[in-house]
Specification:
Largest sheet: 6 strands, parallel
Structural class: alpha/beta
Order of helices and strands: HEHEEEEEHHHHHEEHHEEHEEH
Strand content: 15-25%
Shape: globular
Strand order of the largest sheet: 3-2-1-4-5-6
Length: 329
């Protein structure tokens, strides 16, 4: 666990980085989730309050269910409108490693300085300045501390975004990363007027008809190891088009494999357009899936991680399931 003095110095270094330039490019990881998008807009909000300007950007299509977030509509889709300029000051949020920034890195100037704010324990500190706090439940938890350190008052837009990131990365305050600090922050945000029950209903309970159809396909393919400790599902590259689903509809499907009694690791395999296979791993606690993912060039958390495999679908499934099996011995 990071010493408090060291953490506070990291926060101070991050604020100094923000004060040292006037214009920033703010980016998060490809295929962004609730914490990634929330962190992006919170940094945009903080920079505005510091009198700075910023372009918020992401390589991937954004999850439409997060469109209620302030500044959501200002996040540039890199594939549709790549900036023509190069940026000298970059802020990366919720990126476990540099390659997760994706094609947006092409907009970085050769001598660009990068502030790396993240909560993934596998983050290797790729920034010029790094704020990495593995014990944080979400990157927005770090940003909450950063705003407090800057002595800037939270408004409802900022509070809603931070609450969103906490809610999604803790599975509705159910995962093991739901610390006393998380609940303390959530309590403060609710006191500021965040509609916690509405956000929980919108983000955790509701699903589109397209996602329901995708889920039906996934459950028909749900497979278990002989000892029932590993469960996995597979989504083909044509399944999203056939059901009308979008990438954000994949979120949460892996839990149907993990939540079966006795399963220690659940895996979602998703066939990508380029023929590779993306895998999302979730652990009940017995296996460190971050370590498993790292062996395949990925990363993440002890209980939630991801990686990409280059073999065929069957080869990829067999290879990763075998690696998980060995890790559970």
């Amino acid at each position: 666990m990071m010493a408090q003095d060291s953490y506070l110095k990291q926060l101070d270094d991050a604020l100094a980085f923000m004060k040292d330039s006037d214009h920033f490019l703010v980016v998060s990881h490809v295929q962004p989730d609730g914490d990634a998008i929330s962190s992006t807009v919170v940094i945009g909000w903080l920079l505005q309050n510091l009198g700075k300007s910023a372009i918020l950007i992401n390589e991937s299509e954004l999850p439409s269910r997060l469109s209620y977030l302030h500044q959501f509509d200002s996040i540039v889709n890199y594939k549709l409108a790549a900036p023509q300029q190069k940026f000298d000051a970059i802020i990366s949020v919720d990126c476990a490693d540099f390659k997760r920034i994706g094609e947006v890195a092409s907009s970085f100037a050769p001598e660009a300085k990068l502030l790396n704010i993240d909560h993934h324990p596998t983050n290797n500190g790729f920034g010029s300045v790094n704020v990495i706090r593995a014990e944080a439940a979400a990157t927005v938890e770090i940003l909450y501390d950063l705003i407090e350190r800057a002595e800037i008052s939270f408004d409802l837009n900022c509070a809603t975004a931070i609450y969103t990131g906490l809610l999604t990365d803790t599975g509705g305050f159910r995962y093991s990363n739901t610390s006393p600090r998380v609940m303390e922050i959530a309590s403060h945000l609710l006191a500021l007027g965040v509609a916690g029950n509405e956000l929980a209903d919108h983000l955790l309970e509701k699903m589109t008809m397209a996602k329901l159809k995708l889920l039906q396909i996934a459950l028909n393919r749900l497979t278990f190891s002989d000892n029932l400790e590993i469960g996995w599902v597979f989504i083909g590259k044509d399944d999203l088009q056939m059901t009308g689903a979008v990438p954000e509809d994949l979120e949460g499907i892996v839990n149907y494999a993990l939540n079966v009694d006795g399963v220690e690791v659940g895996i979602l395999f998703k066939e990508a357009e380029d023929g590779s296979v993306k895998a999302s791993l979730r652990s009940a606690g017995k296996a460190n899936v971050a370590a498993i993912a790292q062996d395949f060039g990925g990363g993440g958390h002890v209980r939630a991680a991801g990686c990409r495999l280059e073999g065929s679908v069957s080869e990829s499934i067999n290879e990763l399931v075998e690696a998980v099996r060995k890790a559970l011995i």
